[in-house]
Queue: 4 jobs
Job 1
Amino acid sequence: MGLAALRGRLGNQPAVNLSARERMCLDLLGCGLRTKAIAQELGISVVTVELHLRNARTKLGAATRDQALMLYRAKTAS
């Protein structure tokens, strides 16, 4: 699914309220960090990072991390 399709999909949904930690995890993921590095950066466990990213995927209606990141970026770019 391309970025334009993801933006259209996001536009059809109510505003998504991501927690601060979910946003931080997505931001760090977007900087190229892997789960373990995100956990170290935030001082939390790898399992907690995975939980935050899974919750963000669910809230954004994304099937993958990459898709969640694209949706998140499209939402914050508006």
Job 2
Amino acid sequence: MSFIINILEPYDMKKILASLIFGVAIFGNVCLALGDSESSVIKVGIYAADGKPPYGVFDVTASNGKVYREVILADGTFTSTARDGSVVKGVWEQRKNGIFCSKPFKAPRFRCKYEDVNSNGVWTSTEIDGGEISTIRRLDE
């Protein structure tokens, strides 16, 4: 240990210690920003099917014709409101480009969907385990 101190003595130990603390603080903040925790859903480089961030305000038309206004927040929560006024709230994850998952607070598990914009510019969302297809329209442009 004294060998290391002798090597570092010519340098200002306070500056070295301050730099080390600063580096740890910055690294910790970068890890949080990059989604290093289990609860974080925003990841750098992950986009919705339209190439924009996965959060925003959307109209979702289900295959049965029902329309829902979905407010997807950057904090990982969503609110889905049907035209009849019924509201569902929950959490969401954009697991990777093209895979969007959501889970109402009362639901036991996430339901995931493949999302894509076809050659006609129509954004579709197809449930992975059920095959139901919805059409998505971003409203906050």
Job 3
Amino acid sequence: MTSIDQFLKIDLDKEWEKEYERLGALYNFWGAILAALFLPLALLVEMRLPKADPDWWYLFRLAPSLLIGLLLVLYRLGYVRHDRMMQLTGMLLFTSGAYWVNPDEWLGYLIFNATLFLTIPLVPIMRPAYFVLNFVYTIVINITFFIVFNEKSFVEFWTQRIAALFLVGAIVSYTMGIARYYYFKNAFRHKLVLQKALLSLEEKNRQLEAFQAELREKNEELRQQNEEIMAQRDEIEEQKRLIEEQNQHILDSIHYAKRIQEAILPKREELDEALKEYFVLYKPRDIVSGDFYWLLETEDDLLWLAVVDCTGHGVPGALMSMLGYASLNNFVLRHPVTGPAAVLEHMSKEIPYLLRQAGSQSGDGMDVGIVCIDRRQNVLKVAAANSPILYVKNGELHKIEGSRRNVGGSNFRSIDERFKEEVIHYRAGDCLYLLSDGYQDQFGGPKGRRKFGSRRLRELLQSVSHLPMPEQGKILEQQLENWMAEGQQKQLDDISLVGVRL
């Protein structure tokens, strides 16, 4: 006996056998009656259908019904157990269902068997072994009838459109039938345990009543202590309520800031129209992000694209991203721009001015990768501020280091160092990648102590560059998640990676 059996002082298996007999006598008896009535009804429904062989059709619709009736009589006389009767009833039903009224008409066959599959989880109560036996019989008899009556091969059965549906339906139906058996069994066992537990609780209550006289003397002291505790609890709950309220206000404000930040990002329709084939992997570490990506198409048919990584993440990074967006957008739209390097030069002057970094120790700045795409001449103009840009040409990955200085921050005084600009002639099918450092700096992997690394990222990009861009994006995201999960690490920084097929 199990520990539960010892607790209940009864044999749960024996009690379940009694309950199984009761449930089976009810469900299986009426289930067999319904099965006996189902086949004549199916015969009436199929009466007008064209038939390959009417004699066989009558035989497989009426004979099983008569045999089921015989099983019911034998059950009532005590010669057949209820579960054996239901198991044989199921075999007779699926024998009837395996016969195709017309080899060229599969819909009626599918509806007939689907109806049988629907009844398996609802009607019979049988041991799992019976369900498994009937499942095997169902598959074998359907394949056999298909070969014999349709004069086709075993392989041709599995090439039929309905073969997969039939197999899935059989697996699901019989699995649910087995699950239903265990559901009834476990529910009954839990019921017995609950009843015993209730009896045990009643016994404990009687014992507790015996101690009430002694407890009354201590209740007053406990009441006073309880009043003090309640007063302290009320104070703590009030403080908790105030903290939660303040926290909710802060979260509401941050979520509203997220909506504002998302408004500056390019809409999907704009990206689809301008880039055609691309992916965007954009994963803020917090609700709002210090990274953003930027897209602008000018009247002279130039396409500008940038990925910007601002100092910090969360709310401080988001504020910096708004400054970066305004600086980029305003300059390109309102001034005659010669190339990406000119944009970075402008930002390297405007951002320190807006942040009033002159004479301060502020290190706030931005890493920027920016490109200008001339689609008429198939030319890329590329400039980077401490943010390498990658592109794949003829299957080979190239890295554009750009300038080592960033925009603003501690390097804003280094105005003597000009931003570098490179011109690349591209061909249709070349790939371009702009990214922040969040992906390559993410810790994970074995023991969670290593960064993903720029080299591993470059190798990954080169290995997937031949794939469609959306698929590349999915692979990159999955690789990142696997890397973090393996090392049980959370995301450490905002992550942005934009890929475009030129």
Job 4
Amino acid sequence: MKKNPPKGSGKIRNYIARNPLMGKGGAHVKAKSGKRFLNKQKMRKEVREWRGSRDTYSLVVAVRFILPLTLAGF
């Protein structure tokens, strides 16, 4: 039968890990401000794409309907 050494005696093996300030650490996660910034970037990109698609649509309408009318003399 093995004898276990007495706990709590002896020197601390990793004194840096036992530092109370180290308890504040944790997983590395994005800051809330970074998440907000990414959402803002995504929204702006979608708005640009939406506006771009509308501009092309208006150009298509102009070419299909307005241009033939002007060529016909109306």
